[in-house]
């Protein structure tokens, strides 16, 4: 046999397109030619593969070898194709049979000794291989990650000789069996730890029930960061599909996708982060913080200290729940369905409106500080909450009546289940058509709501978001219709100014 075909997977954003590796042997001076738009690391694979084959006690064929990675217009990088290339050469030279290679896909970088090294993005490849109905061969270090794709046959190997011995029938291998994902992960911080702040906790619970965005504003030390860090713990558990989406994102970035399985991500980038770090970028697009927070929480502390251009790039993912990063050679689509929680001080010194300390800022400084946040961005934040300073005795008294994280999570799960049964998604993701049928108001309430919106200067987008929050409050009280009391509470979270 002089022609053999094997299969592997490239890495394009969070997707793993199939790559067909064609290996052909012909007469002529011994050489190895690699075509198919390979990048530097891929072109160097011919030297790694040559040494790996020789050191695995096989013969490297002294003939003219042509390797084609198809499709030719798909960029290919890294050493992930090494194992497929080596098996293709061995099959085309008759050292292993060709037929079994039709139903497998391989991912692995070869060492010169023939050992197989792990690669990133294995989970995306595993999900794609399962869809195609092929088995997946990976390095032992990647096997547990690949086994997350339930129903996929995974083989874990450590050396090229093991793979060749399996296909030649000398020493057949058995599929990898996962030992389970019972991992010790850090528990979520408890909501009880935040003393007092009844109104802010109420807003946090509303945000969790409806997947709404939230902005905390108040003096330093009032508990804004503590409140935000409690949100992931009261959100519903991830479904299997959502957990796989999150794990696949962390897999393509080279992070350990199983370290927090299956918890929701909580990302808190520093306020010096760039726009590329926030939404993704680079010559080869990589996921940014909005994608790393997919199905979780993106917390932006010191909200007004972020560069205005960085904050403005959040507008698209907040609206569309995805981000497209375009470069000259390629374009990548990254998911970005996250809850935004932001925290800020009301003025540069932080004490505007504080009853215990006087503000040192001039009106011009306060206006300039608050104008760092644009109207379109604030429109996309559903709940604006002022977190005031409380006395120690009052906060301790209120804290005795507070919900624990477990109790709050149970309430949120009940409300989310009601929403999924009714419309298949949390209220924050209601479409305009769904909004018209689910968030109906009486004629008097409609007129009152429109007049209130005009006085507050709310845009149509803001009014729609207010209706969604009102629907969430009604769901929390198990009421079928939105009342004026629900609308009044929502408008309380939409102040004239911060």
From TrEMBL:
Superkingdom of this protein's organism: Bacteria
Pfam families from the UniProt entry: ChlI, Mg_chelatase, Mg_chelatase_C
InterPro entries assigned to the protein according to its UniProt record, in alphabetical order: AAA+_ATPase, CHLI-like, MCM_dom, Mg_chelat-rel, Mg_chelat-rel_C, Mg_chelatse_chII-like_cat_dom, P-loop_NTPase, Ribosomal_Su5_D2-typ_SF
Record-annotated membrane-spanning stretches: none
This protein's UniProt keywords: ATP-binding, Hydrolase, Nucleotide-binding, Protease
ATP-binding keyword on record: yes
Family that this chain belongs to: Belongs to the Mg-chelatase subunits D/I family. ComM subfamily.
Official protein name in the record: ATP-dependent protease
Species of provenance: Entomomonas moraniae
